[in-house]
């Protein structure tokens, strides 16, 4: 690879990987605060492609099979819905935060099928927060996520304890 080609590749990589300095820290999350993100439209093609690769149950692959199932029509895999939710979380605020990941998920509930053409929005609610006892540079924020369709129906919920860096490690919270 020539030096010019490498410089061009490096520039593209830096643009893809560069993140602005974190703007949201543990201290910025306040219990009771809500925010909404989206919308995100789900297509028939992506529902079927995800199912074919990761969850090949008939009701996620075929309209006729979906009609015969509890879904009553073609519906996205719950795991696809989780992936969509995670992307909305990332685009909404995580990629512009001091996120340090999460230690798990407390609960996930799939309440209604996600259908082709659904326009989804995501509502986040900060439930509570606490500083880490073992890591003074980190705090844990419990967040409830609700994914809604265009009719205002909740299709999925998730609660997770997310870890965020502290702006001033060791300071009282």
Structure explained in plain terms:
With 173 residues, this protein is of the alpha+beta class. The protein has a domain at 21-43 and 76-165: Hotdog Thioesterase (Thiol Ester Dehydrase, Chain A), CATH 3.10.129. The protein has 5 helices and 6 strands. The chain has helices at residues 3-17, 44-54, 58-61, 63-68, 78-92, and strands at 34-41, 99-102, 107-110, 119-131, 138-148, 154-165. Strands 1, 2, 3, 4, 5 and 6 form a 6-stranded antiparallel β-sheet that branches. Strand 5 (138-148) and strand 6 (154-165) form a beta hairpin. It starts with a helix and ends in an 8-residue tail after the last strand.
Write the layout of secondary structure elements.
Blueprint: H1 3-17, E1 34-41, H2 44-54, H3 58-61, H4 63-68, H5 78-92, E2 99-102, E3 107-110, E4 119-131, E5 138-148, E6 154-165
Antiparallel strand pairs: 1-4, 2-6, 3-6, 4-5, 5-6
Give descriptors for this structure:
single chain; 173 residues; alpha+beta; Thiol Ester Dehydrase, Chain A; 6-stranded antiparallel β-sheet; 5 helices; elongated
What would you say about this model in short?
The chain is 29% helix and 30% strand.
- String of helices and strands: HEHHHHEEEEE
Radius of gyration: 20 Å
CATH architecture name of the domain at 21-43 and 76-165: Roll
Identify the quaternary structure here.
Answer: single chain
Give the end-to-end Cα distance, rounded to a whole number of Å. 51 Å
Largest sheet descriptor: 6 strands, antiparallel
User: Please, what is the CATH homologous superfamily of the domain at 21-43 and 76-165?
Assistant: Hotdog Thioesterase
Q: Report the strand count.
A: 6
Task: Please mark out the parts with pLDDT under 50 across 5 or more consecutive residues, or reply none.
Answer: 1-16
Overall CATH class of the domain at 21-43 and 76-165: Alpha Beta
Q: Which structural category do the helix and sheet elements fall into?
A: alpha+beta
Which overall shape is indicated by the principal axes computed on the Cα atoms?
Answer: elongated
Average pLDDT number: 90
Fraction of residues in helices?
25-40%
- Strand percentage lies at 25-35%
CATH topology heading of the domain at 21-43 and 76-165: Thiol Ester Dehydrase, Chain A
Specify the number of helices: 5
